[in-house]
Amino acid sequence: MNRFGETLKRLRHRMGLRQNDVAGMLGVERSTVANWERGVKQPSLDTLIKLSETFGVSLDELVGAAQPTAPLPPAYYQVLASDPLVVLLAKRTSVPAKTIAAFIAAFQIPESNCGKCRQSKKL
User: Fold this and answer.
1) CA distance readout (Å), 30 to 20, 33, 63
2) In principle, which of 11, 34, 90, 100 could form an S-S bond with 55, CB 3.0–4.6 Å?
3) The pTM is what?
């Protein structure tokens, strides 16, 4: 099983990138990216770090050592964007409420990933 290659391909598709695009970002040949995705070759640690930064994922997730976090449902963003404080902030800053909601959602920790959250409702 080539977890890294599968993850790289999934992340690349999620961002709408081609192998050529990823290769250009990293300064490698397209065939190198193809070889990573097929499991023929593995990138260096420096390249893995660049890839994790490019795709906004941890190294653990990139190499398949951690399960990807499930995306929040679209309805969550709609509810968050209609929150009175988000609406007020949007008016005061001229930043769209949806953008503010997406920013806030990026820092949400699913309760299932937070052991202390289950132990204490004060968090």
Assistant:
1) 5, 5, 20
2) 11
3) 0.54
